[in-house]
Amino acid sequence: MSVSIDQVRQAAQAISGGVIETPCLHSRTLSQITGAQIFLKFENLQFTASFKERGALNKLRSLDEGQRRAGVIAASAGNHAQGVAYHAQRLGIAAVIVMPRHTPGVKIEHTRACGAEVILHGELFDDAKLHALDLVKQRGLTWIHPYDDEAIIAGQGTIALEMLQAQPALDVLIVPIGGGGLISGIALAAAALKPGIETIGVQTARFPSMYCAVRGETPSYGVTTIADGIAVKAPGTLTLPIIKEHVRDIVLVDEGDIEQAIVMLLEVEKTVAEGAGAAPLAAVLRHRDRFLGKRVGLVLSGGNIDPLMLAGIIERGMVRTGRLTRLTVELRDLPSTLAQVTSCLAEMNANIQAISHQRAFTNLPVQTVEVEFVLETRGHDHVRQVIDALARIGVAAKLHLD
């Protein structure tokens, strides 16, 4: 049985007032960069910073009195856990969340802070899920599936209602895919509201489960991905047929594409997106010709990203755009030689962030020193100008791109 537009509309009523009706806004700058008219749906502004609240709340509101008294259980290491825990607490329903033992402590504490009983079990998500299903039988709890559930799918579909109400002229919706709950709800609702609109899914090349499932191919998986929220190996049995019917296509993006999108959203829109949340913009950046001139709605599905990971992505993004540069020069080991180089860099407005000398561990002649500079620069053109300026004073600089 497939989910209907009426179920999505009922879900919208059920969750009204419990979740934020997030804005769907035009981005002038991203539109200029990509050549498409870009509209962003800011689901990272939900209380738990993820769209997962919609489906979780709709499912919880569908429970009968006996199920509410008995409590619910979910297996998750991320956004689904917090969405279920938060809204269960609001509704006075006891919640148990089973997480893998190596789940980051901050996610565990956030889930506990929402009032849930957190059980750590197993090395991987699948281990946690199996244990949760055992507890369903032992304790008589209601299982809240992260995506393969009609109420979950209908709840996520409310995003399409809001997007097309705010921006009815949209031509394309681009949605991240993990197990498929989000895109299933959005695609079927969008097709009912605006026949002819395209819904495009996006997955990371390291976890192309749904991409391969709709093509009848056998996927191969990477070990990790920055888009951990959509790193799902088992597509839903409910979601797969909906996706086959209503999703026009699924595209793949690489890790670098997602990193670039995260930095761009932070710098241009001043908004934080996790890897899965940035994947739709990554799809536009990678497949620009496909979306040129179209009015494209991107679902920023979540903003839960580790601050240390974000810091690393920002730094790598600065390197990619030539705003953080590593140069190596060979100098005679004499007084004032280094001063000449630093003076040249100052004249070129290249700020020295770090500097290191190498005398012993090198094959250079004695009385020659290798000096490495990490510089703050304005972009690739500025880097070339700095290298040319050094050449004019007789210093050859080697640029490191890694």
Overview of the structural elements:
With 402 residues, this protein is of the alpha/beta class. The protein folds into 3 domains: 5-45 and 149-317, Rossmann fold, CATH 3.40.50; 72-140, Rossmann fold (3-Layer(aba) Sandwich), CATH 3.40.50; 322-400, Alpha-Beta Plaits, CATH 3.30.70. 46% of the residues lie in helices and 19% in strands. It has 17 helices and 14 strands. It has helices spanning 5-15, 28-34, 52-61, 65-70, 79-91, 105-113, 125-139, 150-166, 181-193, 209-213, 239-246, 255-269, 275-286, 288-291, 307-320, 337-347, 380-392; strands spanning 24-27, 37-42, 72-75, 95-99, 117-120, 142-143, 172-176, 198-204, 249-253, 295-300, 324-332, 351-358, 368-376, 397-400. Strand 3 (72-75), helix 5 (79-91) and strand 4 (95-99) form a beta-alpha-beta unit.
Mean pLDDT: 93
Largest sheet: 6 strands, mixed
In total, how many beta strands?
14
Strand content: 15-25%
Distance between the termini: 51 Å
Kindly identify the CATH topology of the largest domain. Rossmann fold
Helix content: 40-55%
The chain-level structural class is: alpha/beta
Lateral strand order in the biggest sheet: 1-2-10-7-8-9
Unreliable segments of 5+ consecutive residues: none
Over all CA atoms, what is the radius of gyration? 25 Å
Give the overall shape: elongated
CATH architecture of the largest domain: 3-Layer(aba) Sandwich
Number of domains: 3
| Number of helical stretches of at least 4 residues | 17
CATH class of the largest domain: Alpha Beta
